[in-house]
Fold each of these.
Amino acid sequence: MMKYFQKLGKALMLPVAVLPAAAILMGIGYLIDSNVMAANADKAPIAVAVFLVKAGGAIIDNLPILFAVGVALGMTKKKDGAAALSGLVAYLVVTTILKSDNIALLLNIPVEEVAPAFSKIQNAFVGILSGLIAAGCFNKFGEVQLPTALSFFSGKRCVPIITSALMLVVSGILYFAWPPLYNVLVKFGESIVGLGPVGAGIYAFFNRLLIPTGLHHALNSVFWFDVAGINDIGNFWAGTGTKGITGMYQAGFFPVMMFGLPAGALAMYHTAKDNKKKIAAGLLIAAAFASFFTGVTEPLEFSFMFLAPALYVVHALLTGIFVAVAAMLHATAGFSFSAGLVDFLLSSRLPMANKPWMLLILGVIAFVVYYVLFRFIIVKFNLKTPGREEDDDVEEEKNAVLADNDFTKVAQIILEGLGGKENLTSIDNCITRLRLEIKDQDQIDEKKIKSAGIAGIIRPGKNSIQIIVGTKVQFVADELIKLAEK
């Protein structure tokens, strides 16, 4: 089950990767004219700004459809376009049948008497569910052979047809299940929302704790997307909501990702052993830059998550505190990808942005707090953060080549550490990790793999291993596939 949810988290990265396009379009549009969507503006908006904001809105407003298509494609074995088409078909069938107007027609009642849940049927949850069902149909029926008279519909051509028929059944189930499920999600969201800034901090704390499992995506969907009516990201970028409140589940991540974690990396570098500082720097500098510039934190977090788990819990607590403080100050900014410099600059001109400069002040404070705490805890408890490991295998560690962008060499080292291509059964990757299926865990040489400059290794199952590479993972995966196919 854990493996399935981790795969789902990886599949969600495909549609989420589209969001920066919306951020760029809308950010530039609001930069040109900050009042472009204001209903009571005293002058006509600039046409170019309207064009860009509406173009970006087309992506944000249709995120559930992107989820349906992206999840369907990402969860299939062959990554075939027919699966994506089936995801779209599944989503259109269920959301059309369960529209408030059609429910009113079915029950012969006024539309005002239809359960409010059906007005929110076009949401991220239904999009993900549609993608999962379509992917399941493709995996099971994508190679089915029909009788000669129906042979045209054999294989993947029959998948959208089967998916649409199955969604009729799913629609019937959701007719009864969606209203109570929606109410539970709303109550959960309201319980956190009702706690105000404290609730935002609690959410952020668990957001970080769930990173190792990949299940933080499920938690994020409740607060960031329109699953329980919160839709913090969508409302922030669309300019709807309450200024100073909308964005509270995003804003506090900026001080942590842009300043706090890089300061933690500096503390780890300063406390590294003299003979390992160069190797530590190669890993930490690249990871810190990724955190600051793009908000991708996994390479840095995985560099100490398992070496010093207590330090990671401190990081999760600090994240919760800074998100809560930012919410208390009503300082808001938003992101479409993650809380890095790019999204900060793009979102700071949006109508919902409120006192974003205060996030920079919090960032300076976060830098000091993270550096002092990390350095004190590492030294006090002699934690084995990067560069503080035992002195054996120093020569092997000097072979770290990821920082030099020698992806072929990195792939070779990883393949050797995995026990050769004979031990590999599947190669895949998400935005920062290699996700591999292997035959025998006993053949894994973690020290060999880490000598390539790898941030961390996870073994989520008997035949599964994840290797934390960072944002360069696609290049490493491509080279690993080439080597495995030779």
Note: The chain has a mean pLDDT of 84.
Amino acid sequence: MSNGKTIGELIEEMRLKAGAKEYHGHEYMALERFADDTRHMIIFDVLTKDSPVGWQGERTRLFLTDEGYRKSLENQEKGHIKILSHARVVQGHLHYDKKEQIR
């Protein structure tokens, strides 16, 4: 390993050098991504001060269960958040709904 870094750390460095963005919430390789019940990853903007997740103006990434994703859709319907990107998560692998989504 380079300078005692893990594979995950090296991958993250490469992603950032290639122009990938880092968001509030979960990191790209967060342990939540690999949990058995994780089924969704979303990137969203927080639109209101009274949003139950995050602070107004933040762009956030979260790895979610089916229930967490359902609640996120409800918060979007209420106008608290705007989901910008969604991917299904299967054994830690991300399957984006559309190729042109932000990552």
Note: Helices lie at 7-17, 66-77.
